[in-house]
Design goal:
The protein has 281 residues and is of the alpha+beta class. It has six helices and eleven strands. It binds a DNA duplex (14 and 14 nucleotides) through α5.
Length: 281
DNA sequence: TGATATGTTATCTT
DNA sequence: CAAGATAACATATC
């Protein structure tokens, strides 16, 4: 479930929690959740934690651990000497490990990082820098970096007839946007999510570029969104608060915050899409 | 029971 | 071949 702002929040939390720590052991509780030989990482120290698209990168001296949380993955850090019941949020006490714990990274100081994943779509891979390059070369630009410009959008929008919302979520075109932030950005830009990209005017593309940057920064500011089931949580166990700022996402049948008409829910590419038929044209 | 879930990708169709 | 549409992955909840 985590999109760019959630993964960025986790990255920052991990950077604080595990940078410099040495990996003492890795327990793989579900074979498919760890790709490659986990033993190779034992004895290595974490140099830094980075993010690319919706993936986390834990850099080690030789290799790196690449993590994708997909729909239901979580990374929870348990400091040394801390009992599980201390890691709680307003919703519940976190039991660690629990039935959904797939991998446990243990550090030499006694602290642990738990990878929980209900649906088992997520994974951790150990890769050489070369293999990392090969695996990530088809990703589009990072929307919060300077290579993300309205000219770039104009270029990728020229020939395609796909709905704009699908294009925003296409990781090979723009990295990191998912279902929540796509709906939110399109509302901010006043663009109907079904609109075909080759029909967008220059003015709309500029507005969209701005809206994407704005919505992602806002998402990071509020430490991501823990919607519905609260599957997304930070490494500390705390939830994010962006869900309190949704303009359209999950607000179907509620009033548009601008024009007070009813927010609609439709399906685009099989995914729920929320928009205001009056404000978004 | 059927629909839904914040992601990606293999496969099928046009 | 390319673009677009759809199914599939595995599990839980409403």
């Amino acid at each position: 479930m985590p999109e760019l702002p959630e993964v960025e929040t986790i990255k920052r939390g991990l950077q604080t929690a595990i940078k410099g720590k040495k990996i003492a052991d890795i327990n793989v509780l579900n074979t498919n959740s760890f790709k490659g030989n986990s033993k190779k990482a034992i004895g290595s120290s974490v140099l830094e934690v980075k993010r690319r698209a919706k993936m986390l990168i834990i850099k080690l001296p030789e290799d790196l651990l690449l993590i994708h949380l997909k729909m239901s993955g979580q990374l929870i850090f348990q400091p040394k000497n801390e009992k599980p019941e201390k890691l709680k949020n307003k919703q519940k006490v976190l039991k660690l490990p629990n039935k959904h714990t797939r991998v446990i990274l243990k550090f030499t100081d006694g602290s642990k990082l738990f990878f929980n994943d209900i649906r088992k779509f997520g994974w951790i891979k150990i890769l050489s820098p070369k293999d990392f390059m090969l695996q990530t070369k088809s990703l589009g630009p990072e929307p919060l970096k300077k290579e993300f410009t309205s000219d770039y959008l104009k270029q990728i929008f020229t020939r395609s007839q796909r709905p704009i919302k699908l294009m925003l979520m296409d990781q090979t075109k723009i990295a990191g946007i998912g279902n929540i932030y796509a709906s939110e950005a399109l509302f901010m830009a006043g663009i109907n999510p079904e609109k075909k990209v080759n029909t967008l005017k220059s003015k709309e593309i500029k507005a969209l570029k701005k809206a994407v940057v704005k919505v992602l920064k806002k998402g990071i500011k509020y430490k991501g969104s823990s919607a519905q089931d609260k599957t997304y949580i930070q490494p500390t166990g705390e939830i994010g608060s962006y869900q309190h700022h949704f303009l359209v996402y999950q607000r179907n049948n509620k009033k548009c915050k601008i024009c007070a008409r009813i927010i609609k829910r439709i399906k685009i590419g099989g995914r729920s899409t929320f928009y205001c038929n009056n404000c978004q044209t």
